[in-house]
Write a structure and sequence with these properties.
Largest sheet: 22 strands, antiparallel
Structural class: mainly beta
Oligomer: single chain
Strand content: 35-45%
Helix content: 10-25%
Length: 520
C-alpha cells in the first residue's frame, strides 16, 4: 500500500499499544484446511471473534477467542473441539512429518505443501515463559524442513543449498516476545493473506517460508479503545524478511529484502476486510540503506521511466480483499459467502500513490449438511487491469518487472498465485470436513509457468505453459495418533518442454505420515 494507507496503519498501531494488555506471548499458528473450515463455521454461525483471512495468527489469540464462545449447538461444539485439539496437540507435542511424493510440479492451494518432491519436517512443542511481576512474556518453537529443490525448473541433480537438489529450511521456527499487546518475533513461516481457498494474489502457500523479524498484534479480539472498537476483531502484522532465491538470471538482485504489512478487520458479522502490502527492495547490486527503505515505505521513486534520473527504490504490490457472508437463515441447511481480492502492480502517474491496475481473484463458497461440506468456485486473473470496471486489459501479466528480474518470487517460486504471471484459472473445490476428503478441479491458461519461474526460458524452449487442466484429491485418516494422507494430482499444460520436475503432464502421487513428536 502507499503513503496514506501506511500512515493509517502506523497510527492504528501506535493508538493501540497501551489500549489493552492483549494475551501472553505465543507462537504463530496456521490451521489445516479442516481446522480453517471449522473456524469459518464458528465465525459465521457462532460469533467467534477472530479474523479468518489472515494466517498465521498467534496461537494464544485463537485459544482465547475459542474459549470465550457462549452456548453452542452440538455441531458447533464439535467444530470448537476439533480446532482446540489440533492447536493443543501442536503446541504441547509438536510434530514429525514425512511426505513421500513423486518429483513433479502441482498447483498448491491453502495448506498444501509446495515442494515438487519429497520432504521431511520436525517441529518442537512450544515453550512459554512468563513472570508474574513483569509485562513481558516469551514463547518459542524450533522447526526444520528438508526438501527437494523448491525450484522445479532448476534441474539440479546433486548438491545441497539454495542452488542444489536438497534444501534445509527453518520452517515453523519462532522466537516471540510479548509486550504491550504485541508479539515481537523472529520467525520462519509461510503466510496466507486473503479469503481464497486455492489462491492468494499476494502471499500464499506456493513458496518456502519467509525468514524474518516482525511484530503482530497478540490478540484478535475487538479493542476496548472506543476509537478502534468499530473494527471488531482485528489483526495487524508487519515484518521484514530476506529472500532465499536461487540465481536464475545474470545480475539478479539476489537476496532481496521483503517487507510485508497486513491489516485485517471484521467490522460486521457478515463482513471481513483485508489491506495488504508487499515490498521488494535491496538485494545484490541494489541500494539497501535506510534512506532507500524510507522511500520504498512511503511509495517514493518507484516505477522509473526512461527519463528519470533516480534509482528505483523498490518493486511493490498492494491492495484489498473482502469476504461477504450471505444473510443468515437459521432454518436453512446451507449458507454462502462471496469473496474477492484485488492487488495493484502499478501506481505510476497517480497523484496519490495508492495501488491501482489490479490483478484479481473472485470466489463463491457454500457450506451445507450442518456445515459438514464446503464447496467453492474461484477465479484468478494475474493480469494487470483485470477487474471488470478497469476497461480493456492492456497492462500484461503481473508479478514481473524490470528491477527484480527473478519476478515476485521466493525460493524460485511465485509468491502469489501458483499459476503465475498472466494466468487465468478457474477452480472448483469440494471438502468433506468430517472424513477429511478433498477434491479440486482446475481449468484455464498459464502463459509463463506453473509453480516456479525461470525468466531465461526462451520462446523456443520454454517451460511447460499454455492451456491448463488439472484434478487433485486427498484423504486425511487418523489412526492411533498417526495422521495418514494419501494424495493424487494430475496437471496438464498444452505447450512447452519438460524442464526439471516441471512437465507438460504432471502426475503426482504422494503419501504423508505425521505423528506427534512427543507421545503421551
Amino acid at each position: 500500500m502507499r503513503s496514506k494507507l501506511v500512515l493509517t496503519i502506523v497510527s492504528l498501531c501506535a493508538a493501540n499499544v497501551f489500549a489493552q494488555s492483549g494475551t501472553s506471548a505465543s507462537v504463530p499458528f496456521s490451521p489445516t484446511w479442516q481446522a480453517r473450515h471449522h473456524l469459518q463455521l464458528l465465525v459465521d454461525h457462532a460469533d467467534l471473534q477472530i479474523t479468518t483471512t489472515h494466517w498465521p495468527l498467534p496461537a494464544a489469540a485463537l485459544e482465547q477467542a475459542l474459549n470465550a464462545l457462549g452456548q453452542l449447538t452440538p455441531e458447533q461444539t464439535a467444530s470448537q473441539d476439533f480446532v482446540l485439539r489440533e492447536l493443543q496437540t501442536l503446541l504441547s507435542r509438536g510434530k514429525a512429518r514425512i511426505q513421500l511424493r513423486s518429483a513433479t510440479e502441482g498447483f498448491p492451494g491453502y495448506g498444501d505443501n509446495y515442494t515438487p518432491g519429497s520432504s521431511g519436517q520436525m517441529v518442537s512443542p512450544a515453550g512459554n515463559w512468563a513472570s508474574a511481576d513483569s509485562d513481558f512474556s516469551l514463547a518459542g518453537r524450533a522447526g526444520a524442513k528438508i526438501e527437494e529443490a523448491s525450484n522445479s525448473l532448476s534441474g539440479a541433480t546433486h548438491g545441497f543449498g539454495t542452488e542444489g537438489r536438497g534444501q534445509l529450511r527453518l520452517e515453523d521456527s519462532a522466537a516471540v516476545v510479548a509486550w504491550g499487546g504485541w508479539n515481537f518475533q523472529a520467525f520462519a513461516h509461510r503466510n496466507w493473506w486473503g479469503p481464497g481457498w486455492q489462491s492468494s494474489m499476494i502471499s500464499g502457500s506456493n513458496n518456502p517460508a519467509w525468514q524474518g523479524l516482525g511484530m503482530q498484534r497478540s490478540s484478535v479480539m475487538p479493542s476496548v479503545s472506543p476509537s478502534l472498537a468499530w473494527m471488531g476483531p482485528w489483526s495487524l502484522d508487519l515484518f521484514l524478511a530476506k529472500a532465499q532465491d536461487p540465481r536464475v538470471v545474470p545480475q539478479q538482485a539476489q537476496g532481496f529484502l521483503y517487507s510485508g504489512a497486513r491489516l485485517t478487520l471484521h467490522p460486521q458479522p457478515w463482513l471481513e476486510i483485508g489491506l495488504s502490502r508487499a515490498i521488494q527492495m535491496g538485494g545484490a547490486g541494489r541500494p539497501s540503506d535506510f534512506k532507500t527503505f524510507a522511500k520504498a515505505f512511503f511509495g517514493q521513486e518507484v516505477n522509473k521511466e526512461l527519463t528519470d534520473s533516480f534509482v528505483d527504490s523498490s518493486n511493490q504490490l498492494a491492495g484489498y480483499d473482502l469476504r461477504l457472508r450471505c444473510p443468515s437463515q437459521p432454518k436453512r441447511d446451507w449458507q454462502c459467502a462471496l469473496y474477492g481480492q484485488w492487488m495493484g502492480e502499478d501506481s505510476a502517474g497517480k497523484p496519490i500513490p495508492l495501488p491501482s491496475r489490479f490483478m484479481s481473484l473472485w470466489g463463491l463458497e457454500t457450506t451445507y449438511a450442518q456445515g459438514r461440506y464446503r464447496a467453492y468456485a474461484e477465479y484468478t486473473n494475474a493480469n494487470i487491469d483485470s477487474i471488470p470496471w478497469a476497461g480493456p486489459a492492456n497492462g500484461g501479466g503481473g508479478y514481473v518487472n524490470g528491477v527484480y528480474s527473478q519476478g515476485y518470487t521466493q525460493g524460485g517460486r511465485w509468491a502469489g498465485s501458483a499459476a503465475g504471471s498472466g494466468s487465468r484459472v478457474y477452480t472448483l473445490g469440494w471438502m468433506d470436513a468430517q472424513t477429511g476428503l478433498q477434491f479440486k478441479a482446475h481449468t484455464g491458461t498459464v502463459p509463463v509457468s506453473l509453480g516456479a519461474f525461470d525468466p531465461l526460458n526462451s520462446p523456443a524452449a520454454r517451460a511447460p505453459h499454455g492451456q491448463l487442466r488439472g484434478l487433485s484429491a486427498s484423504q486425511v485418516w487418523q489412526w492411533k495418533g498417526l495422521t495418514i494422507t494419501p494424495e493424487a494430482s494430475w496437471v496438464r499444460l498444452s505447450q512447452g518442454q519438460d524442464t526439471g520436475a516441471n512437465r507438460q503432464i504432471n502426475l503426482r502421487l504422494g503419501l504423508t505420515l505425521e505423528v506427534p513428536l512427543w507421545w503421551k
